[in-house]
Write a structure and sequence with these properties.
This protein is an alpha+beta fold. The chain has 2 domains: 104 residues, GMP Synthetase, Chain A, domain 3, CATH 3.30.300; 114 residues. The chain is 55% helix and 10% strand. Strands 4-3-2-1-5 form a 5-stranded mixed sheet, with helices on both faces. A hairpin with a 6-residue loop joins strand 3 and strand 4. Helix 8 packs parallel to helix 12. It starts with a helix and ends with a helix.
Length: 235
């Protein structure tokens, strides 16, 4: 974990050196910030808050340079960046929530002062994310009879997606996978099988393998349909 922390700090220093005065702060986000980081299943989420009228030139090249600081960790590095008004960059609504509630400042200790996304904005972004990130992957994942190395991460994520969707939909906050699954046990959505979700969480904690979750034979389409019925019935 120390090597990972060093990498993230080096990423912060790198952007500070290359962006200069337009960089307000660099933040740890995601499971690095709110807990539950998994070497196998987690991305390394880092956010940049910038103070300039338009995107700095060469951001793609700068991000590629950050990934090259440590090739193995670089493969997992996911950069979020933008201005406080969210008029450009890559800082989706759900990640803004994460930044506001859990972002860990890496350079100057600056707490982000941003407008909090509204309930309608959060729900709209979640529905768009379902169409963009969850639903399209289900046909391929449901056909899998075994998991290769490239399949494990998307399979476990697809199983856990329902928990994260429902937790944020109801509470308008982002939390760890563990907190989301705990909440799922409280609300018990009709038709949603929680057993594979518990197994997927255990896999993230290193207590089982993704293949163990696959062997449960979860009906991913039914999980999707049950989760969507729940959220659309709880506006």
């Amino acid at each position: 974990m120390k090597d990972l922390e060093n990498f993230v700090q080096n990423v912060a220093v790198y952007f500070n050196a290359n962006l200069g005065a337009v960089l307000v702060e660099v933040y740890k986000l995601g499971s690095l910030a709110h807990g539950g980081f998994s070497d196998i299943y987690s991305d390394i989420d880092v956010g940049l808050l910038l103070s300039c009228r338009e995107p700095p030139p060469g951001m793609s090249e700068l991000i590629a340079g950050a990934k090259a600081l440590q090739p193995e960790y670089g493969k997992k590095l996911s950069m979020f960046w933008g201005n406080p008004e969210f008029t450009w960059g890559r800082l989706p609504v759900i990640d803004r929530l994460d930044l506001l509630d859990h972002g860990v400042a890496l350079l100057h200790g600056i707490t982000p002062s941003l407008r909090r996304p509204s309930k309608d904005e959060i729900h709209r972004e979640q529905l768009q994310s379902v169409e963009r990130s969850w639903k399209p992957k289900l046909p391929e994942l449901t056909r899998l009879k075994s998991l290769g190395p490239k399949d494990r991460k998307p399979y476990i994520r697809a199983i856990l997606y329902a928990a994260r969707l429902i937790y944020t939909w109801d509470n308008l906050v982002v939390g760890s996978n563990g907190r989301a699954v705990e909440y799922l046990h409280q609300v018990r959505p009709v038709g949603l099988d929680i057993k594979p979700i518990d197994m997927a969480l255990a896999c993230r904690s290193g207590n089982c393998d993704a293949e163990d979750a696959l062997r449960l034979g979860a009906d991913l389409n039914r999980q999707y349909e049950s989760a969507m019925r729940y959220v659309l019935g709880h506006p």
